[in-house]
Amino acid sequence: MTLKVGITGGIGSGKSTVCKVFKLLGVPVFEADLVAKKLMDSDDRIKTGLVNLFGESVYTPSGIVDRKKLASIIFNNDIQLRKVNELVHPVVRSQFLRWVEDQEVPYVVHEAAILFESGFYKIMDFTILVSAPENERIERVTKRDKSMPEQVKERMMKQWSDDEKRKLASAEINNADDNLILPQIIKIDKQIREYGKIW
After folding, report:
1. What confidence score (pLDDT) does residue 100 get?
2. What is the rounded CA–CA span in Å between residue 129 and residue 132?
């Protein structure tokens, strides 16, 4: 049986970097946020739902979702955000479960920004929180996205805090700038392959 390991972390924590290392170790990684974006452009159920919610103009003439327009609608409107998530999440979930069936490996990784908030963690065997100090995360994102610290803080406020996520996480990878992540990841990989668990 292939084990399902969910990986999450707040903005700027470095969860994508951690997932790249797992890939290098031969672990298939399902990038839920990327899959969700693709499905918004390709899945008829989602497209119909979004048009019913926000009108035809939420898609460009070429049938691609207008991400700026959608973001402006849902960023400060929790009700509309929930409606979008209710459309997208079930489709992502079924895609993930089908994908897992095709993998012939000891375990797979499911990478998602809102693993806990969305309830996706409930279908995982283990969950890993990637954490880093807030000031370092802000610095990383401002460099990466050329955004202002205030904008980054605003985005952080929309996500659960690390303390909230810790309560549900099976393990934690500390990705502070002065911490090496490779030994932490190799240890987790070894434990899963040898014992079928993280601790």
Report:
1. 97
2. 10
